[in-house]
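#struct-queue
[09:14] JT: dropping the first one here, sequence first, then the structure tokens:
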Amino acid sequence: MNLQFLTPNWRVHPRVHACMTTRTAGVSSDVYGQINGAHGLNLATHVGDEHAHVMANRGLLRAAVPLPDEPLWLNQTHSTIVYVQTNNGYQHNAPPPEADAVVLTQGGQVGVVMTADCLPVLFASEDGRVVGAAHAGWRGLVDGVLEATIRVMREQGAHQVQAWLGAAIGAAQFEVGADVLAEFLLKTPAAAGDVRVHFKPHPEHVDKYLADIYGLARDRLRAMGVVDVSGGEHCTVTEEDHFYSYRRDRITGRMATLIWMDEPHRMKDEVF
């Protein structure tokens, strides 16, 4: 099977590699499959898919992408917790750490977040020595998961951080209530600007809005000094041939967005 991926359209240090999976070319079936109900690449163990299928899909991922190690799978809870992996000693058989972001400082490690409408964001320092990944649903975004990730990266020595926005729910599909707008109005720092520009009144439903999660994330990143931001061109809801979507299907699989660094002595000239 030929797995299909999104690769970030950023120019990072040659040591840094990243990709995002789609729903295609795995072994999961039914709601975890593709549109035809077969060959889905669900990578999450918590959504009701058969465990053997998930493990087989993770094996297909490792076979298709030159990962240096098993990804560090997280237990994501829409928090702002950032897991910092500063050495190569994490145990893959241990329970996954509870966190919604990961920061890596060593080559040979693989950070990963899983999504199905929420926004995956990848980070890399200019010198390729610190990278990160964050899972930003609207709750994590408004509470500051992106800011928390950037702060941790800077504590680990990152400078001139750039970011890539993976596939998430598009602005024409992300219907939210007035309570979500109120949360963003309350919790968005002044430096991020007026959040109301990213909330359009719903044309059919009173007190409902269409929210632009990409725009909200870009403003938060800019307020933190991250101005080199790419990605954000997809919609997981409407591009059903390529992506799982919780908003569209409720019971569904998850994509994975991964980032890793080569060991210094294995640096390549190309960007994966």
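[09:21] JT: and here's the second one, same format:
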Amino acid sequence: MSSTGASWPVVPGTYKVGDPNAPVAICALTSEKLMNPLASLPGVAIAGMVYTANLGIARIITNITTNPSIRFLLICGKESELFKPGQSLTALAENGVDDSKRIVGAAGYDPVLPTIAPQQVEQFRKQVEVVDWAGEDDLQALEERVKSLSARNPGPFKADGASASTVAAGEAFTVIRPGGQREPLIYDPKGYFVISIDQDQKEIILRHYLPDHTPAHEMRGRGATSMLLGLLRDGLVTQLSHAGYLGEELAKAQTALQFGLRYDQDRLLRPRESPVAATTEQQAMGSEKQGTTPPQAPLKKPVVELYTLKQLESISPDADVDVFLSVTDLPREHVLGGRFVEPDMSGASRVLRGTPKRIEVEWSQASRFAMGTPQDLVVGAILRVFGKFDKNNLVHGEQIIVLTKVEKIS
């Protein structure tokens, strides 16, 4: 990256970087399928998507003007009918912005660039030639167009002092911290809600009770957003904090339906385990009867004990184990290294606590995945592994549950 440095692109977005010193940037509009194959073409510096004619275009301008090697912007793919970012980019190249930083001639919704200085807009217009092929999604035709543009590469753009001084000013935010106090739900005069899911019908069930615990309303649905909007429409929520809480719980319930997880209101999402494999855990937690794992990925039989750190340190080789692992490294092919995670069952729900104990898990194509896939076996993953314990703290993984999206380490 001789012309841009290691920090380019300078702002986040939905894109794939190719050769940062190449002359062509590609905006695939809303066509995600085009992004990766186009980014791999010779001559392409970056290929990405854009949905809006404001923040999306602002990020395109910033990333392009911080890379002087980019001299062409090829627009292709499917246009957004509401925002029309492709048409707006073409209008920007032709007309610039007015005094209110609105793109002159843009036809989409709210095409304004409040975070981009006028000098940066002018640099963008001078630096790149915008090629409007909106609607085109034929990879062979696009590859030929990239070749023809690369052949006309005029070399890196030399910005004048005024433009260069304003580039990459970017977005400025005031930092705030999370936290605060939510009012007790009993103070909401409209009552409270009990949320559950029906896995058979693939529905979220939301029941509304009045403050005196009298049943009032029931709603069934599959989408968190539409259900929350229904509650707001009918005036059943009066507190912002209550609405936020319901949005979070409904989103969890929707995720549980999509991925076959167990949902309990106010608790972390958990895998739905088979009755046999769950027996020990149920006794430890005093919990209700669990659901069943899909038949294509049954959990291990007979019951395997969940190991604590103390038990793990005294275990003998070739023993059946059930362990949690927080992946920190991939020391060799098909081997995961990381910290042993100890499950704490003393409370109302399981809590995972990290330990300094290192263990490694060896897996193979024969290993079963009750949840997740081999592609999820990356640094940062949280796993539950059933298998055989070997010497040197190595577990031969027979069945693996990827818990990265549903658990966290305390």
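[09:30] RK: nice, looked through the second one.
[09:31] RK: Residues 1-5, 162-167, 274-304 have pLDDT under 50 and may be disordered.
[09:31] JT: good to know. The longest strand covers residues 320-332.
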